Amino acid sequence: MPITEILEQNAKLYGSETALVELNPEVREDRRVTWKEYELIERGTADEFRREITWSVFNEKANRCANLLLSRGIKKGDKVAILLMNCLEWLPVYFGILKTGALAVPMNYRYSAEEIRYCADLADVDVLFFGPEFIGRVEEIIDRIPRVKLLFYVGDNCPTFAENYLHLAANEPSASPDVKLTDEDNAAIYFSSGTTGFPKAILHNHESLMHAARTEQAHHGQTHDDVFLCIPPLYHTGAKMHWFGSFLVGGRGVLLKGVRPLTIIKTAAEEHCSIVWLLVPWAQDILDAIDRGEIDLDDYDLSAWRLMHIGAQPVPRSLIKRWKEKFPNHQYDTNYGLSESIGPGCVHLGVENIEKVGAIGVPGYGWQARIIDEQGNDVKRGEVGELAVKGPGVMTCYYKDEKATAEVLRDGWLWTGDMAMQDEDGFIYLVDRKKDVIITGGENLYPVQIEDFLRAHPAIKDVAVIGIPHPRLGEIAAAIIELMPGATATETDIEEFCKGMPRYKRPRKIIFATVPRNPTGKIEKPKLREIYGAKQLVAEQVES
Q1: Which residues contact 93 (CB under 8 A, 6 or more apart)?
Q2: 251 contacts 228 by C-beta, under 8 angstroms
Q3: Residue 508 burial by CB count (10 A; 0-12/13-18/19+): exposed, middle or buried?
Q4: Residue stretches of the chain with pLDDT short of 70
Q5: How far apart are CA 405 and CA 396, in angstroms?
Q6: What is the DSSP letter of 185?
Q7: Does the N-terminal or the C-terminal CB of the chain have fewer CB atoms within 10 Å?
Q8: What's domain 4-258's architecture?
Q9: How close are the terminal C-alpha atoms of the chain, in Å?
Q10: β-strands 252-256, 18-23: how paired?
Q11: What CATH number labels 306-433?
């Protein structure tokens, strides 16, 4: 069943109930007020910057979007890109695109003008929806995206080179368009996070989207009464596909624009959120703010909050231990997934398996998983191999890239590029990205294992371990360490702490610096290798 039918169903069953809430509580006085805030200022409610729509309005807005696109000649199989910050318009536009039979193509809001052009060309984009934050970037490339025949601006003060979507859509019919969709129809193109180079275009069909919703709901038991707090960017599969579990049962979603610890806690309390999906840095920041006395949990009614789950990266055991100390009544789960496997859930820990924290878990609902060697044979339990997954959420292909598709899709199995091992109970532990493995003097080092060890140091907030060139060993492990606010530590302190690891695993170089992460929380290791690897090469040349 195409996922658009769920929206129609929710509109019929829960039409007058709130579907989505947008909160923008961190607006500063010195920032330019955006179009989304004008209406609230006029109503005298600018303090909260809160907007909401019902399920009926959600569905009607999606229908108006679809009917506008159809009236402009957009048809099944066309590609329609979304370049918006999280906002109340994002999801109605997304579902409107799907209702036409066209493919939704969400874009990373951090893309530069050149990256927008590259991705638009790669995905054969015909239409682009964009918001006020992207006027300059779109204008810069407008003459170099000739295939894009329609530019719809979502906001006030429409630039002259685009059309005002909000005005146009308001005059379109609110009835559902008569477009027949099947599970096999192509639905969306997502872009890989680019942590290993230029993004790839990942093609999914409608079956993938529905399976993501069913998997998420099966794992976390969302009911109609649950309230889902969504903080990560909607362009990414992770945030949206977790929300799909609530969407499946008509649960309310809250789109929060802001990641300050107090903002998250206050929103969870005031909106009675029951499910909150966090990235590791946000969870860390919340705990640190509590420890510093900046947040007193007794000041907030968080009784509705039942589940905290984390994805997108390995989760330190120490973090969850601290979390359970502060929030003993919370269920906890971690989810592993890739955009190629429609986001989260192909492997998950399970709320009943908290004693296995540190593992990414077991195959998710409707999924299979294997740990294999380079020939595709299963490795023995306890040995490291590449994680492969299989299920209804696996991508159709890398769009227009047969070679890259053939490298990762083999006999229906998706080779993830992640190195993992399985314990005697069948739980899978992520070891590292295949491309991040450091080979030093013939020994394989897995950065994630070193990072997990270092995160137990009380002064360390975040850490990334990379390989940098070495004239004799080929590579050595370098630890880029970000300290807790106000904490101090020296190279000698870290080296002494690392004596708890086998000698060959200890980082040979310690660098105190900020650890960069992308919007989905993944460490930007290519950026670190570019910075520190280049510095090391220069140093070696000087020495020689």
Answers
A1: 62, 65, 82, 84, 129, 154
A2: yes
A3: middle
A4: 26-48, 193-197, 312-314, 432-433, 441-443, 472, 519-520, 534-544
A5: 9
A6: S
A7: C
A8: 3-Layer(aba) Sandwich (3.40)
A9: 65
A10: parallel
A11: 2.30.38.10
